[in-house]
Amino acid sequence: MTDSSRRVDFVVVSNRLPVDHVVDDDGTERWQPSPGGLVTALSPVMATNDGAWVGWPGRADLDLDEFDADGLHLVPVRLSSDEVDRYYEGFSNDTLWPLYHDVIAPPHYHREWWEAYVAVNERFAAAAASIAAEGATVWVQDYQLQLVPRMLREARPDLTIGFFNHIPFPPYGIYSQLPWRTQIVEGLLGADVVGFQRPADARNFQSAVRRLTTATTSQTAIRLPDGRRLVAKAYPISIDSASYEQLARRPDIRERARQIREDLGNPKVVMLGVDRLDYTKGIGHRLKAFGELLAEGRVSVEDVTLVQVATPSRERVDAYRQLRDEIELTVGRINGDYGTISHQAISYLHHGFPREEMVALCLAADVMLVTALRDGMNLVAKEYVAVRHDGDGVLVLSEFTGAADELKTSLRVNPHDIDGLKDAIVQAIEMPQAERRRRMRAMRKRVLEFDVAYWSSTFLRELAASKNP
Ligand code: GDG
């Protein structure tokens, strides 16, 4: 039911609404919640504050009224298929994404993409402005919507506006490539609090502010020429740790973990990688290291198996199609060269799985490999830690993830250093149990205490406190 006069005190704005459109076998269409960490963290805040969520429902050219699903009030923003191409796949995923991840892939700059980005950001800002009550709090999420804070402030100076960037913010030398670098920084300066994953991201943003605007900065504070102040600092995101641990304790999921090991031929060591198939995740570097270890006889397929889940992602963007070809060629070569009838080197799975299966995989894995070349946080690393209530398991973690700032007793690696990565994999395989437990204990303490509820409550508390007089 539409209630276009409805106004709420708390609004979350993100590119995607937390629901997926599904068509059942009998042809019935419905919206199914896609519960991620963000929904879990924000649902209680939504419920106590009378909240709404503004976002794109994930299908182009769809005219939809506001609706309720699973206790959330959802405000759909329409995108034409042309806008999906230009704003989402183009400017968001083929300009900003590679630029903000240290230009691992070349960013493409197209003026039509930028124009679509501006137009779509305006639409999101207008939708948020029309649902927000007088004096409401609006929390804008991520790099697709960096112009929204300023647009919203201009339309509605009464609002308290937060922004959180889920991906890195690059050093100025890289950021300055962006033809629209000033507009984006000014867009973000519309917020009262701009949150980042790592202190380094916040510092990079402040340096862009100093280079491109007349605002001044002092530690985490930014002062604008008109006297308004805002805060730019790190709020490292986390997961709903307790729910992962609960799943990991379920007898059926533990049984499934045992089954997975058996199906893999009960190797001595199961290693696991779980990533969206994305060039930032360093999947190729991981495979190269593993392939060389097999070639050199430092590990054998009878003893060690790698399970690589590569969830399909952004398949209409060229760089992602190429990446898939490269990865699948490498997996095929390694399996062809080193596999036996009874033992595969790599079990490669190019599909998504239910969360229960992910948890079973984490329980089954002696070693988790997170080798991202650049990653805002990397939740998979935290999920592995939350699942390992048995206190065992080794996390190999790239120092280029936000998670590496917190998970200091992981085996930290530079994934570009293939020899170093190979040594770390061997060290993980051979690590004595006492050392595994000692390292895991420290990481579990961190992940269980600083969960996603801590993240959202800290951000929202500081947002409330930032309100300018
Ligand atoms: C961005 C930033 C930041 C993956 N495949 C399946 C599945 N997943 C889940 C994982 C994890 C999530 O998706 C992926 O989160 P990551 O943090 O690893 O990476 P991005 O998707 O790149 O996320 C990142 C994050 O935003 C949050 O701020 O940490 O740095 O890039 O939760 O478990 N879940 C299920 N089936 C799958 O096949 N159920």
Question: Helices and strands in order, then pairings?
Answer:
Layout: E1 8-16, E2 19-23, E3 29-33, H1 37-49, E4 51-56, E5 67-69, E6 72-76, H2 81-100, H3 111-131, E7 132-141, H4 148-155, E8 160-164, H5 172-175, H6 181-188, E9 193-196, H7 199-212, E10 216-218, E11 221-223, E12 229-234, H8 241-249, H9 251-263, E13 269-276, H10 283-295, E14 304-311, H11 318-338, E15 346-349, H12 355-364, E16 367-370, H13 379-387, E17 394-398, H14 403-406, E18 411-413, H15 418-430, H16 433-449, H17 452-465
Parallel strand pairs: 1-4, 1-7, 4-6, 7-8, 8-9, 9-12, 13-14, 13-16, 14-15, 16-17, 17-18
Antiparallel strand pairs: 2-3, 5-6, 10-11, 11-12
GDP-alpha-D-glucose binds next to strand 13, helix 12 and helix 13.
Could you please describe the fold and organization of this structure?
GO terms for molecular function: alpha,alpha-trehalose-phosphate synthase (UDP-forming) activity. Pfam families: Glyco_transf_20. Belongs to the glycosyltransferase 20 family. The mean pLDDT is 95. The chain is built from 17 helices and 18 strands. The radius of gyration is 23 Å and the shape is globular. It has helices spanning 37-49, 81-100, 111-131, 148-155, 172-175, 181-188, 199-212, 241-249, 251-263, 283-295, 318-338, 355-364, 379-387, 403-406, 418-430, 433-449, 452-465; strands at residues 8-16, 19-23, 29-33, 51-56, 67-69, 72-76, 132-141, 160-164, 193-196, 216-218, 221-223, 229-234, 269-276, 304-311, 346-349, 367-370, 394-398, 411-413. The chain has two domains: 8-237 and 453-465, 3-Layer(aba) Sandwich (Rossmann fold), CATH 3.40.50.2000; 241-449, Rossmann fold. The chain has a ten-stranded mixed sheet, sandwiched between helices. A six-stranded parallel sheet has the order 15-14-13-16-17-18, sandwiched between helices. Helices cover 45% and strands 20% of the residues. The chain binds GDP-alpha-D-glucose. GDP-alpha-D-glucose (GDG) is lined by residues 166-167, 237, 274, 276, 311, 352-355, 358, 375-380, 383.
